[in-house]
Structure formats: structure tokens, C-alpha cells
Amino acid sequence: MATEDEPPHFRVLGTFEVTRGARRCTPSAPKQRALLALLALHANEFVPTSRIVDQLWSRDAPRSAVAALHGYVTAVRRVLTPGWGRSRASHPVLSTRPSGYVLRLEPHQLDLTRFRELSRQGQVAMAAGDCRTAREKFTTALCLWRGSPLADLNDTGMFDHDVTRLEKEYLELLRNRFDVMLCAGDGHLAVFDLEELCQTYPCWERFHEQLMLALCQAERRADALTAYARAYRLLSNQAGIEPGPRLKALHQLILNGEDPFDRAHRHERALSGLPPAGTGSP
Ligand SMILES: [Zn+2]
Questions:
Q1: Which terminus of the chain is more exposed, N or C, with fewer CB under 10 A?
Q2: Separation of 260 CA from ligand 1 center, angstroms?
């Protein structure tokens, strides 16, 4: 297949990249890049022109904004499909709808779609008790994460809202992956990453909990108690709250010298007396 015929591939989980075959074709003009990134974040969804204008011009749009947008759309269509425009055919990837646009991408054309699908498959496997498969899916998904999403485009804060949402999805994926690691008894491999995450996201109580469990698995029960003391301090400094009932119960369990891993499915950590873990929240 000639490069000219290759469908474009988009990556948003890190710096924004568009490629066709082995060739990079990310537009260099900032507004064209931002337009494509915005449409990629909402691939296969209708995105109204008004929303694009608001986001690209930060609610400070000149009268000429819509006309300028039409120009950008034409330009990025040529980037995505070289040679497009010779006929009057509609564009194969970026379609016009009444007062808006849709970027139509197959799952393999966008890293975000694969990331979410792998994450979903992992959760399904985990719920079915197949933590081995879940771990493979989570690990593959994490490989797609190259750093802060759209880092090169977000100096204006244009994508703050989207980036915050994606980072939350990423943290939830990490949390699930640590659960399946703990289930396999591999807590010692997670200690270092968890220590860092507890510092960076002190209000994600599950990370403190996982760190304590990981330290127990690494036969570092005294460090697990120290981790609790640190969690206590971080939570009260950052949020003015005490650790929740799960964390307190886990602390007590370790103090009593009991084994926190006393059930077949250790990721569920159905510890006696521990309230069930919430789903989808820290
Ligand atoms: Zn499990």
C-alpha cells in the first residue's frame, strides 16, 4: 500500500501524533493540530462547530472564527488524505454534518480507543476471576500511555478538562493493575511505583491501601505501618480528613499480626471486617 493510501493513525496519550504508514504527518500549525486533537478525543462522535470554536479560541472567538475553521478543516483533510479534493467526493475520515464534524476512525487508528477497550477487557476478566488475563490486558493498555495526554498542545489549558478525565482513567487502570499484581502475590514489584503514587496523589486512598498490602507481601510489615502513618499525615494535611474505614481496618489487621490475604481471590481482599471497595472511585 502506498503511503498516500494508508489510513491515518492518531495518538493522544502523550504528545499528539498523526501518522500515515511510517510517516509522521501531524500538522505543525497550532490551530490545525488542536482541531484534529479535539476531534480525535471525540472520535466517531458528532462535534458541533460551536464547541470547536469555543475550545480553539477559548471563548474569545473573533467573528471570522467559523470561516477560519473551514480553512483549517480543508487543510487537515489534505493532510489526512493527500490528493483529496480532486473530486467532489466526501472526505473518508473527516465528515461534515449539519453544523459540525465527525472524525471517523476504526479502533486500530486511535490509541485511546485501544486503551479503553483493553482496560474494559481487563475489568471483565478481573470480575470473572481471571486475574492473569486481566493483568495482560492492563499491562498492554499501560504501554499505550506515553505521558501526559496532548502535553504539547495544552500550554493554553485548552484541553485541561479532557486531560483531567484521561488521567483519572489512567489512575484507575493503574489501581486495577496493582490489584491483580497483589492477587498474584507480586506486591514486592509494585512497592516502588506505589510509593511514588501515594506522594503524587495523596487523596487516592486505594493507593495507600495497596502500598500497605504490597509491603506486607514483601515481608515489610513495619514499613506497612509506617506507610499508614504517612497516609494519615498526607490525608490530614491535604484534605483535612482521617483515613477511611478500610485503611483503618487494614492498619488494625497488620497491628494484630493477622494475614490480610486470607481468601482465594486476594485482589478482592475480602478481609474480615473491611467494608467492600468502591468501584470507579479512589
Ligand atoms: Zn484475583
A1: N
A2: 14
